[in-house]
Amino acid sequence: MYIRNILIFFLFFLLVCNGLVTIFAEKISLEKEGKSIDFISVTGMVDRMENGELAVILVEELESEFVVNTSDIDTKLARDVWVDLIIVGKEIKELTINVEKTQEREKEIKELMKGIKEEMD
After folding, report:
1. Do the beta carbons of residue 109 and residue 83 sit within 8 Å?
2. For residues 13 and 7, what is the distance between their CA atoms, to the nearest angstrom?
3. CA 60 to chain centre
4. Is residue 23 within 8 Å of 41, Cβ to Cβ?
5. Best label site of 31, 63, 83, 108, fewest CB within 10 Å?
6. Are strands 82-88 and 64-69 parallel, antiparallel or unpaired?
7. Phi, psi at residue 110, to the nearest 5°?
8. What's the pLDDT tens digit per position in 98-121?
């Protein structure tokens, strides 16, 4: 179990670093051309899926929503899944599922539902 957790952490770390390296390379390239690029790392939630092809992601921190074509990404998205995003300008450059936050929120919702059910009985 311990080795599995280390392996999962390492793979997650590798994926995040790979995305950041790509963004920094793009930033350096644009800065050499005299342009600047700003990026932000935020967490959002998949609010809904439309036609099975589009995922609408709400980012509370930015008070905005992003629409992602699921065929453009390698990650399988579903409603109520939390994701970590790296946004450059107004475009998502990196998207990864935040498994920890998704599980945490699911647990909170189950506990709230259990409390409501107990109050109704």
Report:
1. no
2. 10
3. 12
4. no
5. 63
6. unpaired
7. -60, -40
8. 999 999 999 999 999 998 988 887
Report helix, strand and coil shares of the chain as percent, to nearest 5: 50, 30, 20
- pTM for the model: 0.64
Any residues with CB less than 8 A from the CB of 58 and at least 6 apart, and which? 44, 45, 47, 64, 65
Task: Of 40, 36, 81, give the one whose Cα is nearest residue 58.
Answer: 81
Q: How many whole angstroms separate alpha carbon 23 and alpha carbon 7?
A: 25
d(CA 82, CA 68): 14
Q: How far is CA 115 from the centre of its chain?
A: 29
Q: 7-16, 90-99, 103-112: which range is least confident on average?
A: 7-16
